[in-house]
Amino acid sequence: MAVWSAHGMALAEISGTGSGSGQSPDPHVILAQSELPANAKIDRNAGEERGSVTNLPLPRYVSLKGSEGNARRGPSLSHRIDWVFRHAGMPLRVVAEFGHWRRVEDKDGAGGWIHYALLSGVRTAVVVQDMAELRARPNPDSDVVARAESGAIVKLGECNPDWCSISGGGERGWVPKTDIWGADPGEIRE
């Protein structure tokens, strides 16, 4: 099993196998009969805030397109630069929109207004748990296939309510959402 660092470099090869238990029904799934009438319409976007410019959900996650992005105090070039993001692919959370500008925050809440051209819709995440274990399946009993250092920026794949598939450094696996920043609790991605 490979271990990779925050800079995407393999640190070590670890051999061994996990317990590899068989698949069992998901204990977190609760089946309930709907109390809605059969002809009721469900608005899946009800209560969801939308951006005034893009009409996309707020907040939402994006990533830094290049290797540097200036976060400004306000939504124009005349505003002072408060923060500079310096990692390509860094996940950012869009919390507001104004014209061609997006108000973003990183995992620590630092940020500001960034021009939309510096952002990408590609979803990434940052590992927040040191030596996070990537598993073969979204199950704590599944084999560990790799480990990732805290601070590693990874590509975000499929997510269920509790787990996400991530990839980086040539490795791919499933981690609990609590080990990464870049996906909301309960968010589902296919």
From TrEMBL:
SMART domains: SH3b
InterPro entries, per database record: DUF1058 (IPR010466), SH3-like_bac-type (IPR003646)
Start and end residues of each SH3b domain: 59-122, 123-184
Name of the protein in question: SH3b domain-containing protein
Organism: Paracoccus onubensis
UniProt feature coiled coil, ranges: none
